[in-house]
Amino acid sequence: MAKMTLEQLRKLREEKKMDLTRREVDGKEIQVIVGMGTCGIAAGAKKTFDAVVEAVNAAGLGDQVIIRQTGCMGLCYVEPTVEVVAPGMPTVIYGKMTYDFAKELVTKHLVDKKLLDDHIFDRPAADIMKK
Amino acid sequence: MHYCLGDYVLDIAQNAVEAGPREVVMDLDESEKGFHVSVRDDGKGMTADEKARALDPFYSDGAKHPLRKVGLGLPFLVQAVDAAGGNWALQSAKGEGTKVEFTFPSASVDSPPVGDLPSLLLGLLCLPGDHEMLLRRKGPRGSYELRRSEISEAVGGLERASSLALLKDYLASLEYDE
Description:
The structure holds two protein chains of two kinds. Chain A has helices at residues 6-15, 18-21, 38-42, 45-58, 99-111, and strands at residues 30-35, 65-70, 82-85, 92-94. By secondary structure, chain A is of the alpha+beta class. In chain A, a hairpin with a 6-residue loop joins strand 3 and strand 4 (92-94). Chain B is α+β, with helices and mostly antiparallel strands. Chain B has helices at 5-18, 48-54, 73-83, 117-125, 148-155, 161-175, and strands at residues 23-30, 34-41, 87-93, 97-105, 132-139, 142-147. Chains A and B meet through helix 1, helix 3, helix 4 and strand 2 of A and helix 1, helix 4, helix 5 and helix 6 of B.
């Protein structure tokens, strides 16, 4: 692909009519938060982040899902970690979220609304628990 | 230790963003001799004492996690650069900001692979906060600059997955111009 200019980027966005399909209903958005502290980065969280972006868009959920980075969530021993906040489902923190499992996260948790039981790790380490 | 050079960059950039800056300026300079990176922020900065302690792997300033007993970002970087025979520098002034610079020489077998640039740039731009970020990239395929505020405006924010996918394509087009 040839180098895009910012202007071409803006045009591309308009063509995709992303803003029209965006649903700005409060609290109904899905949030996927990828842990990117030193522990996460060392475990390959950058790839997890990319995988989530890819998988979410491939599933046609690009406009409904917000993807964020955060620091360490206190689960360094099972990085990469991903927190999923989806309406109608319990908020969970998944661990060992490698590239392949990120795709499963989207199809199973976000689309089929089923938890990935093997990957739930939601108890942070003692040093980040609030006293 | 991190897998690729990009991972070290993202780690250090996170420190810069968390210092409460108005702007973070980064240079990513790839030449035949090596890969030189500079990360400068105008955030809270460190005293000489804090600066010395920042390089200690068993020290963390406690801002994010008060009970944390390690702070590995800078120590990982220093260890990797030293192993590859490169050089690094850390400058900081309290209330003014901090600058981290480092170079991994191409000739060293211990220099990590560069990694995927578009993926790194996406990660850098998406670091959460209200700061401005200026990324200046010089590479084998030419030079370009990215300004976070402009990019965010062009793709409709840096949070929605659809915006991020669009941004990823844009970044790939800059890096892999055919």
